[in-house]
Amino acid sequence: MSLAERPVTDLKGVGTALSLKLERLGIHKLQDLLFHLPMRYQDRTRIVPIGALRPGDECVVCGEVKAADVVQGRRRSLLCRIQDGTGTLTLRFFHFSAAQKNGLKPGSRIRCFGEARPGPAGLEMVHPEYRQQRDSGLEPVADTLTPIYPATEGLQQTRLRTLCQQALEELNGDNLAELLPQEMRDRWQLWSLADSLRYLHNPPVDADQHLLLEGMHPAQRRLAFEELLAHNLALQQIRHKTQQQGAPSLPPQHRLIPAFLEQLPFPLTGAQQRVSQEVARDLAQSYPMLRLVQGDVGSGKTVVAALAALQAVENGLQAAVMAPTEILAEQHFNNFSQWLEPLGLEVAWLAGKLKGKTRAAQLAKIADGSAKVVVGTHALFQDEVLFHDLGLVVVDEQHRFGVHQRLSLREKGRNGHLAPHQLIMTATPIPRTLTMSAYADLDCSIIDELPPGRTPVNTVVIADSRRDQVIGRVRSACAEGRQVYWVCTLIEESEALQCQAAEVTCETLREQLPELRIGLVHGRMKPAEKAAVMASFKAAELDLLVATTVIEVGVDVPNASVMIIENPERLGLAQLHQLRGRVGRGSVESFCVLMYQAPLSNQGRERLAVMRETTDGFKIAEKDLQLRGPGEVLGTRQTGMMQFRIADLQRDGDLLTRVRQLAGQMHGYPQQSAQLVRRWLGQGEEYGNV
Ligand code: ADP
Ligand code: MG
Question: Whose CA is nearest to atom 10 of ligand 1?
Fold first, then answer.
């Protein structure tokens, strides 16, 4: 039977209690034991002469006991002195029994393993492992490096070691198949699976420990490669299945689009044109477009979405535009209505909070096809929403939607046997390693140009002890007719507390700046209230808008030119970048003030420095990935997808080009592909059925 199927309880001495402990480490089957790789190794393969010991060495020494005394220092301890002809070493025990002391008889020989550290009288080992040596050093030492595994409470290293060794003994070519085609392994000199596992659980004496510690040994890289490949294949399979569904072909009809462009108050940037053309080509295909458009905040993604929607509408189909929050959905609704109604198109609006008759009316227009474009939140994809003939789904600010939502969207939008085209837009630039892994099911376009006339935002990092100064700055900016955002953040996840903090801040600011018109918007307000406040800010009826991070994405108020962010150290870089993107949209010089709470941690300082030094979203995203890891960068909802057992995107990101290349060739090996996905991702429950 395959090692992927045999439970650990098959091994000698593994009962329920032990198997529960193993479960805590994610180990259920024998295969899991083999993929439970050591974090580091100890060298117990040779006996080191005491005279050659250096501080920090972790090794085996042998010697004759010269003395063993209990001393009363700061703490009562047992000190044992041993000698081997090259030097003297002290063994120090804080916990010991009388029997132990008596066992260390002068003249007897012991062998110990521990870490040499400087002590009051030369090198010493604190609580070394040791045992009596009966036949003067003839006992064999270990013949491989000793693995140290990630462990859990109540599970000893020695126990884990034995279990892994038992699993290794079971390993043969039949019960844990080599799934990488020989030809590819030859070309890229990839180790075989069995060799890699044997090596990593029992590295030879001369193994490069440094390389192993870094995770860069060929045996480790081979496994990381396989894992990344499996993830890539899983996403390719989803893509493949989606594309097999077929989609309505929507070629450009040159009816609505020229009229739309005509009435736009500005010409498209080169990047907007290029990306729109990529999208237009995809829409003409008879299989679903799966395209991710990345464009920094303010790069003008909405226009690109509108062009795509018009192409669907020109062909007689509907387009749905989904945003992650009601405020954004509403803003899109306003934009689309403004742009499309002059062209004689009806735009519908749907959000969770919409109830009763209004809701029913919108649903009816969506169902009978009189609404050509439908804008809303994820409420768009509830079961009761029936589209007349949906041809395109646009998802804005994709980073808020995880892989699951992406998939359910593909499912929901399906109409008969045809699937809608999908355009996914994100304002969070995604580091290349992530587009090549987490988004491997999508094609990618980048709007790498901002509309002309923007001036870069000046970023200032300042301690909150200088709050008065910041308030002075707000006062003078508003006196010049500018508008200001003031963003409150809290560590607590609780939205209630966040909102409360924003309310308090708002009150304080109203007292300190009585001449200003100050508004407040937070997540617990009713959508209508939020919308009203946003609308009056947009209409310049408010000078200062105090907000929680609800204004994070996409809100567009060109006259706002100052952004104050309290406690920016609590936010990720990508989020800060998003917030900062709210200003610098007009032609006046803009400021972003990051008002931190002193003292800053080193990492905090480093992160805020990045914000000060660059406004390039891609650089910021790379740095965010480096500092916080992919889970945080993608958002928690996405992490399930990106939890690797062995691979590490930062360390192994350079493998992705080959991974993708090989994934492209694996359709020649359908059985292996399926097995790879099963081996590394289980039965695919994460992916749902597409
Ligand atoms: P984002 O990419 O962040 O979604 P938006 O689509 O909200 O950006 O656009 C930001 C602002 O830039 C809007 O006010 C929009 O009208 C304006 N804009 C978009 N494209 C252009 C362009 N080509 N020239 C000038 N202004 C533009
Ligand atoms: Mg936007």
Answer: 298
Q: Are residues 67 and 38 in the same domain?
A: no
399: which DSSP letter? G
Q: Which of 554, 581, 614 is the last residue of a domain?
A: 614
The residue range of the domain holding 348 is 245-447
Q: What is the pTM of this model?
A: 0.75
**299 CA from centroid of ligand 1 (Å):** 6
| Residues 22 and 111 both lie in one domain | no
φ/ψ region of 162 (left if φ > 0, alpha if ψ in -120 to 50, else beta) reads: alpha
Say whether 492 sits in a helix, a strand or coil. Answer: coil
**Under DSSP, is residue 110 helix (H, G, I), strand (E, B) or coil?**
strand
Which residues contact ligand 1 via a Cβ below 6 A? 266, 268-269, 272, 295, 297-303, 427, 451, 554, 556, 558, 585
Given 158, 192, 207, the domain boundary residue is 207
Give the position, in ligand 1's atom list, of the atom nearest the Cα of 558.
14
Q: Which amino acid is at 590?
A: S
pLDDT digit string, tens, across residues 550-581: 665 556 788 999 999 999 998 888 888 888 98
576 and 486 part of one domain: yes
| Cα 225 from Cα 231, distance rounded (Å) | 10
pLDDT tens digits for 261-300? 999 999 999 999 999 999 999 999 999 999 999 988 788 9
Task: Among the bound ligands, name the one nearest to the CA of residue 454.
Answer: 1
Helical residues (DSSP H) of 545-592, grouped into ranges? 573-580
CA distance 324 to 561: 24
- Clarify whether residues 177 and 101 are in a common domain: no
Q: How many CB atoms within 10 Å of residue 12?
A: 7
The CATH number of whichever domain residue 106 belongs to comes to 2.40.50.140
CB 4 within 8 A of CB 32: no
Quote the tokens at residue 201: 């659980």
Pull the structure tokens for residue 554. Answer: 């996409």
On the CB side of 121, CA atoms within 13 Å amount to 10
